[in-house]
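Session log. Operator J.P. requested a structure for one protein chain; no other inputs attached. Running the standard single-chain path with token output.
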Amino acid sequence: MSTVRRLIVVVLFDGVDLLDVTGPPEVFSLARRESDEAAGYEVVLAAETMDPVTTGAGVRVLPDVTFDALSTERIDTLIVPGAVEIDSRRRVHPLTDPHVVARVKQLADRTRRVTSVCVGAHILAAAGLLDGRRATTHWSTAQQLADDHPAVEVDADPIFIREGDVWTGAGISACLDLSLALIADDLGEAVALSVARQLVMYLKRPSGQSQFSVPLEQPSMTRRIEDLRHHVMRNIGEPLTVADLAGHAHISDRQLTRIFKTELGTTPHAYVESARVEVARSRLETTDATLERIASLCGFGTVDTLVRAFRRRLDTTPTEYRRRFRADGARD
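Structure written below.
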């Protein structure tokens, strides 16, 4: 099987946030390891010259390539990190060097998708790449982004936002969530979930907001719990009572409850409900299946039970969730 080359370019400039630069390459490197098929990701750090770049943390980073050397390259993904300065009153101000803005605009013309991390959204906006689009950035600079660029619809709540071929991420650590979403878009949710597990973090779904995150994928300390979790997902439409799970694990009901509490900080019943909600979320986002069918397939039994679980876990209803997060081209 031939490998699709996916050239990912991370923009470097003086003062850039270090984690914005180093986070995505780490995530994409894990995708190469976790994917059954070669992911084809090639990540390079690009700067004006090959001289070391001093980040906002004071750590110097060596570029892999210059902007000019990329003039004939077809870029798959452009990642634009951010940089800030803090004034005497401890207020945060995003930096948008005109030369960096111009370079980003040039690179974007040859890029399949453009992304920003944290206050990197201000650079995309200055380059005109967010006009007419909904975008997010770090909460501390969201109002400034809206004030400086009225043509951008700024939403400070989501972890990240996808608008066509332009993606924007919120806080600095959201570069990991954004990278996982890009991997899911390229290689599927299964690969992204495997990477998330290696990072010991939750998998955020594309366009997902923090308040709609079910903490389903906490790391397991034993093979027994990991096996039980896979058993739950494989049999999500079944009753999955405490007795069922204990029987599968060949332990007593009491021991099962104790293991779930110790390792996952929850009860078997609560975990199963979280798993059902997670699967129901996916079906609401990607299919046109009725609530009755989703309730049945996910083990809720009735729509009322499905609705109560969504209100309890996500503080919304399945209908409202679908309206907000349903993907284009959803299937039956």
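Operator note: The CA atoms of residues 285 and 326 lie 4 Å apart.
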